[in-house]
Design a protein that fits this description.
The complex is a heterotrimer.
Chain A lengths: L1 H37 L12 E6 L6 E2 L1 H8 L17 E4 L3 H4 L2 H4 L6 H11 L3 E6 L9 E3 L1 E2 L4 H6 L3 E2 L7 E2 L2 H32 L2 H16 L2 H19 L8 H25 L3 H9 L4 H12 L1 H17 L2 H6 L17 H8 L8 H35 L1
Parallel strand pairs in A: 2-6, 3-4
Antiparallel strand pairs in A: 1-4, 1-5, 7-8
Chain B lengths: L3 E10 L2 E11 L4 E5 L6 H7 L10 E9 L2 E2 L7 H6 L1 E4 L10 H11 L5 H14 L3 H4 L12 H13 L5 E5 L7 H14 L4 E5 L3 H7 L2 E6 L2 E7 H6 L4 H7 L5
Helix pairs in contact in B: 3-4, 3-6, 4-6, 6-7
Chain C lengths: L1 H37 L4 H5 L2 E2 L4 E2 L2 H32 L4 H15 L2 H15 L6 H25 L3 H9 L4 H30 L27 H10 L4 H39 L1
Antiparallel strand pairs in C: 1-2
Helix pairs in contact in C: 1-10, 3-6, 3-8, 4-6, 5-6, 6-8, 7-8, 8-10, 9-10
The chains are: A alpha/beta, B alpha/beta, C mainly alpha.
Chain lengths: 401, 250, 285
């Protein structure tokens, strides 16, 4: 009997223990899968599957980076000497251009002569650069493929252009989104921190119990409203308001995102700040009042310094909430992939980009990988935030002891 | 001469009648101990003198409290001015999480005194009066949390002295301290009596006997007896006082 | 000296005003959605399929879809979350393991919902080959809710006084008996309330279901766990931003938004009523 009971106890403890490992396991799995899908962006050709960039055999250039290729096809670079080749002007060529050079009869009814004609073309145009399917190149092709340099992490993070589907070569630079995310978040905080902290102080230190009993459920309700509803409200009310107030062409702006996000970050900031204000011992407040300080002076000189780490935690978690928010921002910021230079222009954020584009990115393609890499960046942001919060909590404990 | 006076005091917390018809006077440069079992109202009574009970939402007072002849509950009384003039030392040492220096300077700063020289002088004088100066004079910038409990309590006394109070209220100031620190605090109270009037709530009867000139015995919200300490301890006029002093209940 | 009192007065009035503003924001949002939405909601809206390019009909499949997802995620997250909360609070002493588990739970709670969406897609939809399905969506949402459930449970258990546990141990009860007979009966009102509140959270999440289950337009009910479904929050997003005829779908959007807000209101009210009721019951027993 006794034995049986011990076995049951141990068994239950085992079940409980395995449940408690799930969160750690999930975090690890998230890391594994984000990297598994996203890291491929940094090795492998950024070109569409099977497509190649080729030049004539005489052309000395073996390798180009994506930005140069893009510039060439945008005709920003028109001479080979600019990219380290001979002084010869560049002739752009994609498969659809073939009819400009050869008649349909020459190519054959089922394009069966296309490979040969491609070869003829490169022989007769040594200055050409071709963007064609690798399969249509004949054996003994009189040219060579240009190796495209791998996308680098700095190139990804600091790249200023995000054209994930452009031909012949897409660009995956997320700098505009990092700036967009940070600006929207910053704006949200400028709005939410003063409002949130003031409300928390009012609830914890000023209002009497009846008013607090009204405010508390209101804040809870605010935190429960789904983000799409905030986004919808923002889209219908705030966006037109901003458009009219500032006489803009579009109201979907950083500002709109900041306002909506600010509202959404309020409950986080208020709840955590209020909790931390409540941890201050009553006798400390009384000591201050007994010295002739007003309640306000007590608040500013004793209560707030005492609750400092709690308030910083509230702000940082508010930042976390704002950085990761997806749907509301997606609906109100306009999603332009330029670097925003003011609060009154459209911008896009990292989460909004993922949400908007993942559905259209072919599984396993470079675009898909780039979006997962964006997910990694977002994940890293939140990890930094979480560890900062841990750090603040721990350093607070040390001071107290 | 009378420093402070309570006349026909009645206090309610909601429906609870916490203090009943209490009248008491306090002479300058004396120590009055308030004794009695837990919940007898002695702390509530003490906290009337700097209006600390105002913080409790359902608190109600009838009667008159005067300090230096001034009615501190009059309509136009300024509550922070009143509190400034009356120092308070709490049960547990409760220094602010600031430096030693800033703790003592706090009362000055919140009352608009920021002149460097005045503050410096006051801090030194208060710490000397609290018999702490020699122990901390080289560590004024250190956090007040870093010194011992006994030192912290003397710091809290120095903090109260800095605003030059007319009356000092002490709510069991040594109950959280070890015997040696307690002895130091008692010694200090004896010294402070020369310049201040002190009301002290204590659970410790020996302590009341050692340090006070007058003693008031509270029981169930009433003041049973108030007289010279010697009289109370050696020859109490009331049977309940006798029973309490001799330890029959507590 | 009146200066400092004046400053206090100004500050407190300002703070009161700001608090009023915060309440005002909430009232504006709720009021706006309610006024525009309540007229749209009728029996047909709640029980019919969407039709005519989502400009007419109802949102029935989205309601059913959200219902399925809430159920699915709760079946996954409630038991695991509660058990995990019991383990960390009752079994683990203050050790590196406890700190580590806490830290990981906090980390998970801080991960943005869109990252859960990516993860759900990579693991459940692609790697485990569930495809876009109720099961993939439910599991993703379940993982997202897990930290909330764990924290709720821990908070509820923490509020049980240690003296109760000691009393039970002193009578020779084992740990498990103590938890079962003493701790849980006191803590369960708060646990249940927390669980109900998390239902509100799950029903409004959009980002995690975008790529794991949500269908743009699917006017039929799911027949198995491997079916896609429509869901209320995603439906609102679609109606608000990419409907075929934005002007004509607008009333449907208001109606959907109102239904979402109503769910949150109902859930919050139920939770607080239930907490009061259960706490009374615990005291009576």
């Amino acid at each position: 009997m006794k034995n049986y009971r011990i076995i049951v106890e141990k068994f239950v403890e085992g079940v409980l223990f395995s449940s408690s490992t799930i969160t750690s396991l999930t975090v690890i799995l998230i890391i594994v899968f984000l990297f598994r899908e996203g890291i491929g962006l940094f090795h492998g050709s950024p070109l569409e599957k099977d497509f190649v960039i080729a030049v004539s055999k005489q052309n000395p250039i073996q390798e180009l980076d994506a930005a140069k290729v893009k510039a060439i096809f945008n005709q920003d670079i028109t001479n080979w000497s600019k990219v380290g080749g001979a002084n010869d002007s560049i002739i752009l060529f994609t498969t659809s251009d073939i009819t400009n050079y050869y008649s349909e009869e020459e190519l054959g009814s089922a394009l069966e002569f296309l490979p040969k004609k491609l070869n003829d073309f490169i022989v007769s145009h040594p200055g050409a650069i071709m963007y064609v399917s690798g399969k249509s190149l004949p054996p003994g092709f009189n040219g060579h493929r240009i190796k495209i340099k791998d996308i680098t992490i700095p190139g990804f993070v600091f790249g200023r252009q995000w054209y994930p589907t452009s031909e012949p070569i897409p660009s995956y630079g997320i700098w505009p989104m990092i700036i967009g995310t940070l600006m929207v978040t910053l704006g949200a905080l400028l709005f939410a921190i003063p409002l949130g902290i003031a409300t928390a102080i009012y609830m914890a230190e000023v209002a009497d119990i009846r008013i607090r009993n009204i405010l508390k459920p209101v804040i809870e309700l605010l935190s429960g409203i789904p983000s799409v509803v905030f986004g919808f409200f923002g889209l219908i009310v705030i966006v037109p308001l901003i458009q009219q107030t500032f006489h803009l062409i579009v109201g979907e702006t950083v500002l709109a995102g900041s306002i909506v996000l600010g509202i959404m970050a309020l409950p986080t900031i208020i709840t955590i700040t209020e909790d931390s204000l409540r941890t201050i011992p009553q006798s400390l407040k009384e000591a201050s009042l007994a010295l002739g300080a007003t309640r306000w002076q007590t608040l500013v000189r004793v209560v707030i310094p005492y609750a400092k780490s709690g308030i910083s935690t509230a702000i940082i978690l508010g930042i976390g909430r704002a950085i990761g928010e997806t749907m509301a921002v997606l609906m109100v910021t306009g999603n332009a992939s330029n670097i925003p230079h003011s609060f009154l222009v459209p911008a896009r954020t990292i989460p909004a980009t993922i949400a908007a584009e993942l559905g259209e990115a072919p599984y396993g393609g470079m675009h898909f990988k780039a979006l997962f890499a964006l997910g990694i960046v977002l994940f890293l942001f939140t990890i930094v935030i979480n560890f900062t919060v841990e750090f603040i909590k721990n350093s607070k404990k040390e001071i107290r002891s | 001469m009378i420093q402070a006076e309570a006349k026909k005091i009645n206090v309610w917390y909601g429906d609870f009648h916490a203090l009943k018809e209490i009248s008491m006077t306090f002479k300058p440069n004396t120590v009055t101990a308030l004794i009695g079992p837990s919940g007898c109202g002695k702390s509530t009574f003490l906290r009337l003198f700097n209006r600390m009970n105002d913080l409790i939402s359902n608190f109600r007072l009838e009667g008159l409290i005067t300090v230096d002849g001034e009615n501190i509950y009059s309509k136009d009384a300024k509550i922070d001015e009143i509190r400034k003039g009356i120092g308070m030392v709490f049960q547990k040492p409760n220094p602010f999480p600031k430096s030693i220096y800033e703790n003592v300077a706090y009362g000055l700063r919140v009352n608009g005194i920021n002149d460097r020289k005045t503050v410096d002088e006051t801090v030194e004088r208060s710490l000397r009066q609290a018999a702490l100066w020699d122990e901390v004079k080289d560590d004024l910038k250190k956090s007040a949390m870093s010194i011992s409990g006994g030192q912290q309590q003397r710091l809290c006394i120095a903090r109260a002295l800095a605003v030059q109070p007319r009356l000092i209220l002490m709510d069991e100031p040594a109950s959280a301290l070890d015997p040696i620190s307690t002895a130091k605090i008692e010694e200090l109270i004896f010294e402070l009596k020369k310049a201040y009037t002190i009301i002290i709530v204590t659970h410790n009867l020996q302590q009341a006997g050692r340090i006070s000139d007058y003693t008031g015995f509270f029981y169930l919200g009433e003041m049973i007896e108030h007289d010279k300490t010697q009289k109370i301890f050696l020859n109490p006029g009331n049977e309940r006082t006798q029973n309490y002093i001799t330890g029959r209940f507590g | 000296m009146t200066k400092k009192r004046l400053i206090q007065k100004i500050a407190f009035i300002t703070f009161g005003f700001i608090s009023l503003l915060v309440v005002g924001i909430l009232v504006t949002i709720l009021g706006f959605i309610t006024i525009r939405g309540i007229g749209v909601v009728n029996w047909e809206f709640l029980t019919a399929m969407p039709k005519d390019g989502m400009t007419k009909g109802g949102i029935f499949p989205a309601i059913v879809g959200t219902g399925c997802l809430v159920m699915g995620s709760m079946i996954f997250a409630f038991p695991i979350g509660v058990l995990s909360g019991i383990y960390t609070n009752e079994y683990l002493k203050d050790s590196w393991l406890k700190r580590f588990i806490r830290m990981m739970t906090n980390n998970l709670a801080g991960i943005p919902s869109i990252v859960f969406g990516l993860f759900g897609m990579a693991l459940f939809v692609n790697y485990l080959k569930f495809g876009d399905s109720i099961i993939a969506g439910s599991l993703t949402l379940g993982l997202l809710t897990l930290p909330v459930v764990i924290r709720t449970t821990e908070e509820a258990l923490k509020s049980v006084e240690d003296s109760l546990r000691m009393g039970s141990y002193a009578l020779g009860a084992t740990k498990l008996q103590t938890i079962k007979r003493v701790v849980l009966p006191v803590a369960y009102p708060n646990i249940i309330t927390g669980l109900i509140l998390s239902i509100g959270r799950v029903s409004g999440e959009t980002a995690p279901i975008l790529f794991t289950v949500a269908a743009y337009f699917l006017p039929k009910l799911p027949s198995s766990l491997s079916d896609q479904v429509m869901a209320l929050p995603y439906h609102l997003y679609v109606l608000a931003t990419s409907g075929t005829n934005m002007i004509e779908t607008r009333p449907m959007a208001y109606g959907t938004a109102f239904v979402l807000v109503a769910i949150v209101l109902i859930v919050n009210t139920t939770a607080s009523l239930l907490r009061r009721f259960l706490q009374k019951k615990v005291k009576m027993d």
